[in-house]
């Protein structure tokens, strides 16, 4: 690791370790967007970027960007801007992506196949280490270079692979049961695509992706515009 990378890592770790001043959840939610914007900037060969440019790329205002980055202790330099490599490294550390996270996917149907083959997961610091299903037609097949294992072996697979994050793409009816199994196996983060809320203990984080709900929110804003009311 060169000097700049290790300095950024130290900054990020210092930030992550700072007590009493957690990064607000809304800021955390925008950090992946900043990271993506920085990756595009870096791919164009730029070493420095301004808050205006980065904010435009990430779809936020420059003031919002500066405020968010200030929580990371990153203020940029007047007239110079932000060091792209340093900021990328810092955000990577704060998001907990400096170390590769092992991910297990349960339910290798339509969505599971698509996600398993999504290269963006590996590009962002995650490694898919296991695929599980119950369908005899799916178990034993190879998807994205991994052999699909039977969901009955979930605990053994978590033990063997060291997975800490589970992606749930099973039918809704079995999602809670699979979630319970993942938690019992030691998984601490669950990304679920199955409709419905999951109950988990306090030490486990759940993120829900629901395309239909997102569309409903767009429909709400569309309707509010057409009836002349203000959507907030
Ligand atoms: N959140 C979203 O935006 C979104 C979009 C599409 C689908 N979905 C949801 O994602 C889930 C998957 O959708 P799909 O179209 O891929 O369905 P699918 O039927 O193609 O795939 C589901 C897979 O889960 C497996 N499965 C069933 N019970 C299991 C268990 N106990 N353990 C392990 N695997 C099990 C099935 O064998 C099948 O391979 C559904 O709950 C669906 O409603 C969500």
TrEMBL record:
Name the UniProt record assigns to this protein: Redox-sensing transcriptional repressor Rex
HAMAP family (alphabetical): Rex
Residues spanning the membrane: none
Major localisation: cytoplasm
DNA-binding region, residues: 33-72
Keywords: Cytoplasm, DNA-binding, NAD, Repressor, Transcription, Transcription regulation
Basic and acidic residues compositional bias, start-end: 1-18
SUPFAM superfamilies according to UniProt: NAD(P)-binding Rossmann-fold domains (SSF51735), Winged helix' DNA-binding domain (SSF46785)
Subunit structure, as described in the record: Homodimer.
NCBIfam families, alphabetized: PRK05472.2-1, PRK05472.2-2, PRK05472.2-3, PRK05472.2-4, PRK05472.2-5
InterPro entries membership: CoA-bd (IPR003781), NAD(P)-bd_dom_sf (IPR036291), Rex_actinobacterial-type (IPR058236), Rex_DNA-bd_C_dom (IPR009718), Tscrpt_rep_Rex (IPR022876), WH-like_DNA-bd_sf (IPR036388), WH_DNA-bd_sf (IPR036390)
SMART domains hit by this protein: CoA_binding
Recorded family membership: Belongs to the transcriptional regulatory Rex family.
Binding site for NAD(+): 107-112
Summary of the function given for this chain in its UniProt record: Modulates transcription in response to changes in cellular NADH/NAD(+) redox state.
Lineage, opening ranks: Bacteria, Bacillati, Actinomycetota, Actinomycetes, Micrococcales
